[in-house]
Amino acid sequence: MDALTLARLHGVVRVLIGGAHVLAPARIPAAWVGRDARRAGVQVFALAFGARDAAIGGGVLTAGGPDAARPWVLAGAASDAADLLATLRSRDDLPRLAVAGVTALATTSTLLGLWLAREL
């Protein structure tokens, strides 16, 4: 599988995760932030997070080729790194399992994005 195909698959995952956050901003984020996901303010950020990820994924999917996809992939890697740092910064106030899961997912996605950007 070439890097562009893998980047597009990663883009599909972003659209799906982002869309899920937009469609269920109280339910989906609960796996990350716990009961606080019920709060209206958290839901605002869940919607924004979802829209961001869906837009980045859509950008990768509609990019005409590797050179056009690279900036979208880098934007995704930067966003994933920010998610990781935000999670680690607030880890004492988040469910432990969520911290472990988000740390693993965000780290993997950040590294994948950086590798893909280099390969594109």
Largest sheet: none
Estimate the strand proportion. under 5%
Shape verdict: globular
What is the helix tally?
5
Distance between the termini: 12 Å
Q: Please bin the fraction of helical residues.
A: over 70%
Tell how many strands the DSSP assignment holds. Answer: 0
Identify the quaternary structure here.
single chain
Mean pLDDT: 96
Describe it for me?
By secondary structure, the protein is mainly alpha-helical. It has one domain (3-119). It is built from five helices and no strands. Helix 3 runs antiparallel to helix 4 (66-89) and helix 4 (66-89) packs antiparallel against helix 5 (96-119). 30% of the residues are buried. The mean pLDDT is 96.
Short description:
By secondary structure, the protein is an all-alpha fold. It is built from five helices and no strands.
Labels describing this entry:
120 residues, mainly alpha, 0% strand, globular
